[in-house]
Amino acid sequence: MKRLLVLGSGAQGSTVAKRMDEEPNVAEIICADYDEKAVSDLAGQLKKGKALQIDARNVENIVKAAVGVDLIVNALPMAFGRIVIEAALKAGVNYQDFAAADDPSMDWVEGIRVMLDETSAKFRAIGKTAVISTGSAPGIICVAARDAVRELDSCETINMYVWEGVKAKRFLPFWWSPEVAYADMSDEAFPFVNGNIIASKPFELPVTRDVPGSDTPIRFVEHAHDETVLMGLNSEKYFKGVRNVYFKYGGYGVDFAENLYKMGLLSEEPIEVDGQNVIPRKVALKLTPPAPKYHDEIKEILNEGLIDDSGAMIVEAIGTIKGKKVMVETHVNSLSCVDAFEKSGLTGETYFTGQGGALFTKLFVNDKIYQSGLISSDMLEYDQIDYYLEEAAKLDITLDKKMIEL
């Protein structure tokens, strides 16, 4: 029987806690957050829940909370990542997060490289496992990419496309954190090109293509995401020598942010306005409505009606089978925003990401994770992928996969 410490009582942490409350192999779920009311409300909804108010900025607070725990699930903002990893190592506990943690002391790509090497060795030394980047993208999309590549003898290119087509009648550019969105969209992206991780400016390398659910072609652009770096670093061992990996993002929020970026409104460099120094991105954030997260708030938006309730996640793995060039095209299906709310009280975005993470937690609690050290979500073995996808289908997350000769 497993005991879990879930840090963060937002949509992702709540989803993991609720899913694990249903697992026979889970004895207790310690729900921890700085917001005492939020964490008490969450724990009160669970049969196995226990509430804990915690300041996760302090490593020792987390270590103390993790006594007797089998797994720490980090569903806090990315800025807490390195703190929680340090706490997990100090407590001698398995670890899971939703995105690779930033290390402000080094380049982002180098930071991920260090995690897969040095941090992995530290977890291996204590006989524990850390799994990073386990949401939807990264997370589910990495599982889909691995599943596609297994069909090939060799792999040349992996293209990943994510389109968020959900649009409310009210002004609501993002269904996830605007703060994270603006940071990602103004950062350099790092595609893997000709065997090397390179830097590209935001909104570069545009591609226009048809997607299911849209009457018109969608424009996708480069976007700062873990997947290209992870798969690039893991190209030989897990992706059959892939030479090119791209992550492209499109949708209403992307188009909106691109205009702000071109105006300089996503910059963190101060500018003078009428004798006052202001930071443009802070102005943009102040005027951008937050993503809806409370039940009644989401319900109100949906009752107003949506202009569009579409989206797509597509993986293309291009390579060879018996000397012939082919493409394995995978469409990842999940619930629409309306259907996700009816099923879970969550938006489509938070349902998809939260369930994706919960499926990785399910691997842990059912002893399907047998690696030691630190692995990313694109490093599952094929038996683990099969289990993951089988359980995902029970949550209405499925793959449609087809082979196309080129």
From TrEMBL:
Pfam families: Sacchrp_dh_NADP. Residues 5-130 form the Saccharopine dehydrogenase NADP binding domain. It comes from the Bacteria. InterPro entries: NAD(P)-bd_dom_sf, Sacchrp_dh_NADP-bd. This is Saccharopine dehydrogenase NADP-binding domain-containing protein. It comes from Candidatus Thalassospirochaeta sargassi.
